[in-house]
């Protein structure tokens, strides 16, 4: 469990910390006597935020339980990161954002969570201040060789989140049409990460023209970094 740089595996919370603005909870339930004990400890952490919580990150099996509890407390949440080991859908998240529980949300990162077209529409309409969106699916080798194409997700993001400045879509089946929809629908986009989106045709002229206004783009395969900067002409990475 990571709390503002402190690491806890079930021990008492430090009394010297009055409240937490940033909370990162990783699944360490096996270190507790029971799942209920783990949930109780996690809730105690949220309570210590005292309405000042701005960042919340959770990785584990009880995503719905913890997210619902955070939403029910006073918060100033601007960044939300969720990773679900059980690969559940986004129904709980959608229900919460529809109730305007996170009106200040600027960054949303979803990993290994199944998100439908309808979910994206509801998130986009409820989180008007959202600027950065990550949708990272479970990486599977067969995706790379799959012939299936699907531009619905990309088109829906373009229509529902036109204010985005940063977008990460990994393991997506979009084609060049989906990429074009994103670039047309999100004119403020500066950063675009499409790693492992193997249905995109990386013909150099098309990529250069389409990504002319993008400051940083990561395409298909893992990039090479040097001092946290991408090594590639025009800051593009395509292999």
Features:
nine-stranded parallel beta sheet, 239 residues, F-box/LRR-repeat protein 15/At3g58940/PEG3-like LRR domain-containing protein, LRR_dom_sf, elongated, two-stranded antiparallel ribbon, 22% strand, single chain, disordered N terminus, 8 helices, alpha/beta, disordered C terminus, Leucine-rich repeat, LRR (right-handed beta-alpha superhelix)
| Overall pLDDT metric | 76
What class would the helix/strand composition place it in? Answer: alpha/beta
β-strand amount: 15-25%
Would you identify the regions where 5 or more consecutive residues have pLDDT less than 50? 1-11, 222-239
* CATH level 3 topology: Leucine-rich repeat, LRR (right-handed beta-alpha superhelix)
Compute the CA-based radius of gyration. 19 Å
Characterization of the model:
With 239 residues, the chain is an alpha/beta fold. It has one domain (2-201): Ribonuclease Inhibitor (Leucine-rich repeat, LRR (right-handed beta-alpha superhelix)), CATH 3.80.10.10. Helices cover 30% and strands 22% of the residues. A nine-stranded parallel sheet has the order 3-4-5-6-7-8-9-10-13, with helices on one face. The chain has a two-stranded antiparallel sheet with strand order 1-2. The protein starts with a strand and ends with a strand.
């Amino acid at each position: 469990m990571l709390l503002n740089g402190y690491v806890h595996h079930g021990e008492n919370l430090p009394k010297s910390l009055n409240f937490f603005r940033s909370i990162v909870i990783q699944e360490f339930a096996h270190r507790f006597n029971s799942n209920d004990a783990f949930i109780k400890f996690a809730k105690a952490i949220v309570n210590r935020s005292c309405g000042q919580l701005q960042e919340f990150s959770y990785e584990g099996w009880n995503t719905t339980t913890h997210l619902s509890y955070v939403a029910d407390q006073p918060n100033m949440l601007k960044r939300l990161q969720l990773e679900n080991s059980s690969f559940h859908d986004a129904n709980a998240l959608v229900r919460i954002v529809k109730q305007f529980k996170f009106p200040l949300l600027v960054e949303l990162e979803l990993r290994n969570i199944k998100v439908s077209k309808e979910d994206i529409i509801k998130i986009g309409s409820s989180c008007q201040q959202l600027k950065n969106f990550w949708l990272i699916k479970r990486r599977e080798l067969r995706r790379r060789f799959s012939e299936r194409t699907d531009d619905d997700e990309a088109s829906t993001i373009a229509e529902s989140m036109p204010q985005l400045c940063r977008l990460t879509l990994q393991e997506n089946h979009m084609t060049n049409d989906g990429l074009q929809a994103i670039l047309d629908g999100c004119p403020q986009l500066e950063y675009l990460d499409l790693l492992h989106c193997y249905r995109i045709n990386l013909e150099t002229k098309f990529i250069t023209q389409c990504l002319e206004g993008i400051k940083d783009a990561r395409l298909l395969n893992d990039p090479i970094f040097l001092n946290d900067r991408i090594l590639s002409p025009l800051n593009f990475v395509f292999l």
